[in-house]
Amino acid sequence: MNTPEYRAVFFDIDGTLVSHRTGSIPDSAKETVLALHERGILLFLSTGRHFSEVKNLCGVLDLPWDGFVTLNGQYCFDGKTPYHAQAIEPQDIARLIARSEELQVPCKFVEEDRMYVSAHTDVVRRVQADIHTPLPALGDLRHGLTSPVYLVVTYCSPTQQKELLAPLSHVRSTIWNPFAFDVIHKDGSKENGVRMTCRRYGIPLEAAMAFGDGENDADMLRCVGMGVAMGNGAEVAKKAARFVTRDIDDGGIAFAVRRFGLLPG
């Protein structure tokens, strides 16, 4: 059987490209990304993060990316121009603000060019430290009543999350930390962002590879020609993937890229 010719690769950041253990990109991953670029393969970041956070991450933007799927697919752009944007319904934002105040659950609202959190609690500090990211600025969530909000991070337990989202009709959420969830429009996902990106660049989905490690990566891993879960990844990501590679700190990206013939090895 001939090895498919992959024309694009999508990379999650946390736990996939950037190690949770070291807070940096392993040298083997950097070298692999650069070698893929030299071969003319298109490279995309696919992350739950806002682009302003990516700018502050240990050299991530020093690598030659062709485009960005951010906010779990809610905001996609080619470095300058957005080609897909999907905000949360305004009525759900209003309900979420009221519910978060009632339950005293801190939330971070993410807009196109800013993000802000309702409180700096111990839980918020711990979660942000886990991803090697400074605390977001404090802000009034009511700003989201008049500006599009593309993603909300809720800092709470799974039980609280169910209570928090109960009144909302058009959202979905994924967990990425024991006390942090991403909330987006129910029709949004990394899969949708990847599909929009492949359409934008004229790439068949079967000619795309994707790397991920978390729950929010699962649909992306299922939709491409080769979904690769990291060895350190969550079980839901591993079950969604066609291949499980080595741990991020054991050269997992380099191993899979060579295993499937994108680079000689």
Explain what the structure shows.
With 265 residues, this protein is of the alpha/beta class. The protein has 2 domains: 8-85 and 188-259, Rossmann fold; 90-185, Hypothetical Protein, Haloacid Dehalogenase-like Hydrolase, Chain: A, domain 2, CATH 3.30.1240.10. It contains 9 helices and 14 strands. The strands form 2 sheets. An 8-stranded mixed β-sheet has the order 5-4-3-2-1-12-13-14. A 6-stranded mixed β-sheet has the order 8-7-6-9-11-10. A hairpin with a 4-residue loop joins strand 6 and strand 7 (115-117). Helix 1 runs parallel beside helix 9 (252-259) and helix 3 (90-103) crosses helix 5 (158-165). The longest helix is centred in the middle third of the chain and has 14 residues, at 90-103. The radius of gyration is 18 Å and the shape is globular. It starts with 7 loop residues before the first strand and ends in a 6-residue tail after the last helix. The mean pLDDT is 95.
